[in-house]
Amino acid sequence: MGEKEMEHTVDRLNRPAYSIIVPTYNERLNVAIIVYLIFKHLPDTNFEIIIVDDGSPDGTQDIIKQLEQLYGEDRVLLRARPKKLGLGTAYLHGLKHATGDFVVIMDADLSHHPKYLPSFIRKQKETGADIVTGTRYVNNGGVHGWNLMRKLTSRGANVLAQTLLQPGASDLTGSFRLYKRSVLEDLISSCVSKGYVFQMEMIVRATRKNYHIEEVPITFVDRVFGISKLGGSEIVGYLKGLVYLLVTT
Length: 249
Fold this sequence. Notes:
Layout: H1 3-14, E1 18-24, H2 31-41, E2 47-53, H3 60-71, E3 76-78, H4 87-97, E4 102-105, H5 117-127, E5 131-135, E6 142-144, H6 148-165, E7 177-180, H7 181-190, H8 197-208, E8 213-217, E9 219-221, H9 232-248
Subunit structure: Component of the dolichol-phosphate mannose (DPM) synthase complex.
Catalytic activity: a di-trans,poly-cis-dolichyl phosphate + GDP-alpha-D-mannose = a di-trans,poly-cis-dolichyl beta-D-mannosyl phosphate + GDP
Pathway: Protein modification; protein glycosylation
């Protein structure tokens, strides 16, 4: 093996295998807990956590800077933006700073428990999947902390999308996923939606491109601290996005 090949091999061994991108906005009460839980549940995994904060006014960035000092700036990376610029662009911003061959996207509000991360990684290794997505809608999956109306709204929206789009995945709007880096780059460049429709478009376009998708059952837990960012405008946006995907994919 030549000197350059040796350097390349050492570089691959040293850099993280997994980049975990966590967008935040006003998550001061949650961000330290989610980081702690990721480290707890991935003790033998080489990973980095890239936190994309959109100018939170509640002091979220101050907490993240403390986490950088605690865990190391090579393990926890604050990559801030000046203001809220959308979920899709947050992932794209994080991806620019990611060094792993695989990218995990997850929420900071504890609705996505890091205890499922080993299952995502194991499923990808076993199947060679391009995408592993968490699902609330198969055996052993579920939702905790939602009232009946929100459960019915979520289920109805998912059934409607399943019927119209035939996406090849049971949970379209979930945002707890593991991607091969190259696949995520390809899909993000193809997607035009913003907000909650973005997750649905990612899966629909992945299916149309014949990417291999696997699922892991998860229990989604409603946020413990902070205020939900889902409102009426997001529901209207979802319906508009559904029509757009029906026409264009």
